[in-house]
Amino acid sequence: MWRRLAGLVLLAGAAALPGAAASIALTTGTLGAATVAVPRCTTAGLTVFQNLSAGIVVSVTVTGLPTSCGGALAQATVNNGLVNASGSTTVPAGGGAITVVLGAAVAVTAAEQTDLLLIGP
Question: In terms of residue numbers, what domain contains 111?
Answer without folding.
Answer: 47-119
